[in-house]
Specification:
By secondary structure, this protein is α+β, with helices and mostly antiparallel strands. It contains eleven helices and 25 strands. Strand 23 and strand 24 form a beta hairpin. The longest helix has 14 residues. This is Trypsin family protein with PDZ domain-containing protein. GO terms for molecular function: serine-type endopeptidase activity. InterPro entries: FHA_dom, PDZ, PDZ_6, PDZ_sf, Peptidase_S1_PA, Peptidase_S1C. Belongs to the peptidase S1C family. Keywords: Hydrolase, Protease.
Length: about 425
């Protein structure tokens, strides 16, 4: 045993090997050949092996040593670890979900990113991702094509994409849409609905044979750092897959210098290029969680997608009204937090005693809010009979209720409380 330990010139290596063998309830074998090259083989049940194997594969290829020095690892204390997978049945105590198969690839028993995680997600949704091509011309002469991507979300041929790929700034169709599937089939598509403000559109195709579809997931539980996959047809290169992480879950349009109405985007570092617009942003379960619409020119890893929860609401508007109905109050609003409240109290001691709410720094003259009696400096704490702490909550409460009166409770200087009644109007499409 002493001789065995002395073979380890690096304590970290010894600790790692011992921990792997002990935690995996496996077998640790140490082999030394006559030329003093050492290796360790750890045998353990495959569920535990799968959950630990992938990060360790970087050991042999890492480190500050040049490649010609790596032939004798024991000289520098870098003992290569190789894993052998015993052909045994999984532990019966494991849940079916943890031990079940996804095709020929076993699911991992922990919430880790496995070797096939990205590939499985891409394979699941890939057949439903389409290439969109719209001829561009002048006086009837075709001089090029506008390209984009989309996702089939219904067996009836409903395709989700971005508006700027298929309509002009006035919302009019750019013309015939050629839709090409991953399997090579081509269809002529029709733009059914489009909302240029949200940059979301729906295209429809007709097929006599079954169409692959993608499942819409949820963007509400995404966190910065979550893995995501961007799919589409950049530069007409169909079936292109890139991966990255969520950088921000609620990047505001105002942060990007975009005026107009309130909008929020998912920010990711997935590589996207012209032609990716309208393609799906996908989670590791192969569900659509966003629609890729833009990137920052001249910067790497600054890309943006419309969250799928917002997209779902837009689709409901399309079904119900044929367009998106947006109520308008005429308020500039800012979400409050502890830091902002503390700062406002420093510069104005009469600022109301609130911890959360929505600050009203500006009221548009002649707007519904102006007529209702809102004033700059008000803090909105209740709307429609519910407590509110964010602009998003106010928007969700209003939904598409134009012409419906809402009770609003505001806090003013010196903790004065006022109850107002405001009736939203439909937003001007040109705003």
């Amino acid at each position: 045993m002493i001789r065995f330990v002395r073979k380890f010139s690096n304590k970290t290596t010894l600790i790692r090997a011992a921990a792997l063998a002990a935690a995996g309830s496996g077998i640790l074998c140490f082999n030394t050949s006559s030329d003093h090259n050492a290796s360790i083989v750890v045998s353990m049940p495959f569920p535990f092996r799968d959950s630990l194997a992938w990060p360790w594969r970087a050991v042999e290829g890492s480190g500050p040593f040049p490649s010609y020095m790596r032939s004798n690892h024991s000289q520098y204390g870098l003992l290569p670890l190789s894993f052998s997978r015993p052909d045994v049945a999984p532990d019966p105590s494991m849940s079916k979900e943890a031990a079940g198969d996804a095709g020929d690839n076993p699911k991992h028993s922990c919430n880790c990113l496995g070797r096939d995680t990205i590939a499985n997600a891409a394979a699941k949704i890939g057949p439903a991702v389409v290439n969109l091509s719209i001829p561009k011309g002048f006086l009837g002469v075709v001089i090029g094509k506008s390209i984009g991507s989309g996702t089939i979300i219904n067996e009836d041929g409903t395709i989700l994409t971005c508006a700027h790929a298929v309509v002009d700034l006035q919302g009019s169709s750019k013309g015939r849409v050629e839709v090409t599937l991953q399997d090579g089939r081509s269809f002529e598509g029709t733009v059914v609905n489009a909302d240029v403000h949200a940059d979301i559109a729906v295209v429809k195709i007709k097929s006599k044979t079954p169409l692959p579809t993608a499942k819409l997931g949820s963007s509400s539980k995404l966190r910065p750092g979550d893995w995501v996959v961007a799919m589409g047809c950049p530069l007409t290169l169909q079936n292109t897959v890139t991966a990255g992480i969520v950088s921000c879950v609620d990047r505001k349009a105002s942060d990007l210098g975009l005026g107009g109405m309130h909008r929020e985007y998912l920010q990711t570092d997935c590589a996207i290029n012209p032609g990716n617009s309208g393609g799906p942003l996908v989670n590791v379960d192969g569900e659509v969680i966003g629609v890729n619409i833009m990137k920052v020119s001249g910067a790497d890893g600054l890309n943006f997608a419309v969250p799928v929860d917002s997209v779902a609401r837009i689709i409901e508007h399309f079904k119900r009204n044929g367009r998106v109905v947006r109520p308008w109050l005429g308020l500039k609003m800012i979400d409050l937090n502890d830091m902002i409240v503390a700062h406002l109290k420093e510069i104005n001691t009469s600022f109301p005693d609130v911890r959360r709410g929505v600050l009203i720094p500006m009221v548009s003259p002649g707007s519904p809010a102006d007529r209702a009696g809102f004033c700059p400096g008000d803090v909105l704490v209740e709307f429609g009979g519910r407590s509110v702490e964010s602009i998003k909550e106010v928007i969700d409460i209003m939904s598409d209720e134009v012409g419906k009166p809402f009770k609003a409770v505001v806090k003013r200087a010196n903790n004065v409380t006022e109850t107002l009644t405001v009736t939203p109007e439909e937003v001007n499409p040109d705003m």
